[in-house]
């Protein structure tokens, strides 16, 4: 994997990223083991963990009966899981191919989900209605250049008193060298407005290869993420950090309950995930 920093217009970066994510759709349809959803009780591992973290911050400790907007939903496995937990769910993604796959999954398993094709940075203009919960999970906001605008979209989608939830890879993790024989910094933790450009034909799930290998991401330190939400008027309810990832960031990681982690003697040295719960004032 290679990386460099470049100045690139958002539209050009978005087009390259869209081509890459479109390539991922058929690969992820295989790697995500969609047949598991034939069991009506099945929920994705990500959503199971997130629902437990959300419980103290939603009415009655559950999302059943809530209006939920899932941003950057990809092929809908977590979205369908949220619907199975009893929520009225809208899934949002910028890839039409991903949403076609998500629609097929939802229809096959009888999940009632509304799908909206739009950039997350334009979500408020494209999505009708206000929501009790806006949900974002693993592998999302590094693809966005403008977190202030992202925070504004989140706040605008929430009804007064509504809750925002995100669990994602920690920016300290993303600064590490995934190929090094030890914990070693390689990439920028703080952003400077330029994109990190990657040339990689692999994806985080399965062994398939993508044809469009060039992608662009932006480093966002934890302070920027928090302040994007606070600056949009949300009130921080919870900030947590974790040591277990739902995907294998490095070949050195070992499988543990709930996913992947650094070897035990290194586990306390660096966070792998962060979780934020924020609320729009009533």
From TrEMBL:
<dbReference type="InterPro" id="IPR029063">
    <property type="entry name" value="SAM-dependent_MTases_sf"/>
</dbReference>
<dbReference type="Pfam" id="PF13649">
    <property type="entry name" value="Methyltransf_25"/>
</dbReference>
<feature type="domain" description="Methyltransferase">
    <location>
        <begin position="70"/>
        <end position="162"/>
    </location>
</feature>
<protein>
    <submittedName>
        <fullName>Class I SAM-dependent methyltransferase</fullName>
    </submittedName>
</protein>
<keyword id="KW-0489">Methyltransferase</keyword>
<dbReference type="GO" id="GO:0032259">
    <property type="term" value="P:methylation"/>
</dbReference>
<keyword id="KW-0808">Transferase</keyword>
<dbReference type="InterPro" id="IPR041698">
    <property type="entry name" value="Methyltransf_25"/>
</dbReference>
<dbReference type="GO" id="GO:0008168">
    <property type="term" value="F:methyltransferase activity"/>
</dbReference>
